[in-house]
Amino acid sequence: MRRTERRDFGRETGWTIVVPVKTLVAAKTRLAAAAGPHRAALAVAIACDTVAAALACPHVAGVIVVTADPVPAEALAALGARVVADPNAGLNAALRSGGAEAALLAPAGPIGALQADLPALRPEELSVVLSCAADFDQSFVPDAAEIGTTFYGVRPGVVFAPRFGGESRARHLGGGAKEVAPDGIPSVRRDVDTPSDLEEAVALGVGPHTAAVVRKLKESSTWRTPS
Ligand SMILES: Nc1nc2c(ncn2[C@@H]2O[C@H](COP(=O)(O)OP(=O)(O)OP(=O)(O)O)[C@@H](O)[C@H]2O)c(=O)[nH]1
Ligand SMILES: C=C(OP(=O)(O)O)C(=O)O
Q: What residues bind phosphoenolpyruvate, as annotated (predicted)?
């Protein structure tokens, strides 16, 4: 797999952010009916806007993408992410693998896991989260539904133990992570799994990759405005 890197991971106090990206054949299944032939392009576009916003955040030293799929790998490497192979043992194993790479690249820096489905992500809102997270050994941001998690992070030297999947808010709380949910971070919490999530992200303002696919989607016969 091609490994490209435009950041030097050299800002030792900056965060290294690990972003997991599923293979396209398995991605965004809850959007399959609505997205029709645009599902894979939408998954790549959403990941691109997420990673571009993370790379534009001044608190971020670098982004590591963990994926087994060469298509998002190439698109995200072109944006400046370092891409590492997925161990193919599930989401948290993929994140731990990215976390191990982060610890090698920037041993003195904090490490975060960020979901790849945050197309409205704003660098300044991620900055608010990373500033708050720096005060705690382990912390997380709940998703907009307050069931899942969009971000999990650890201070330098703390074991990186993400517990994503399903009702992960409760698992992160149970694992001792501090919940970080200040006002003013809607873009960090707006993950996109369903058509109505996508409408909410569009209302917040999605990045250019997602906006281009959404334009095509809305002209297609599969898309229905969620009630
Ligand atoms: N590298 C990697 N990423 C994963 C894996 N499973 C899930 N992800 C990523 O984890 C995040 C949450 O994934 P899910 O909600 O399970 O999947 P999704 O593709 O977003 O949506 P659905 O197919 O509708 O469940 C997304 O960023 C996915 O790309 C995995 O096994 N490996
Ligand atoms: C994996 C998760 O998210 P979702 O399935 O909602 O994308 C999670 O919130 O832990």
A: 149, 165, 168
Q: Which ligand is nearest to the CA of 118?
A: 1
195 CB within 6 A, ligand 1: no
pLDDT, tens digit, 9 for 90 and up, residues 18-42: 999 999 999 999 999 999 999 999 9
Cβ of 67 below 6 Å from ligand 2 = no
Ligand nearest to the CA of 143: 2
> CA-CA distance, 194 to 217, in Å (whole number)?
14
Bridge partners for 10 per DSSP: none
Q: What digits encode the pLDDT tens for the residues 94-145?
A: 999 999 999 999 999 999 999 999 999 999 999 999 999 999 999 999 999 9
**Domains of the chain with CATH codes:** 15-158+165-216 (3.90.550.10)
Cβ neighbour number for residue 181 with a 10 Å cutoff = 14
**Residue 89 Cα: closest atom of ligand 1:** 31
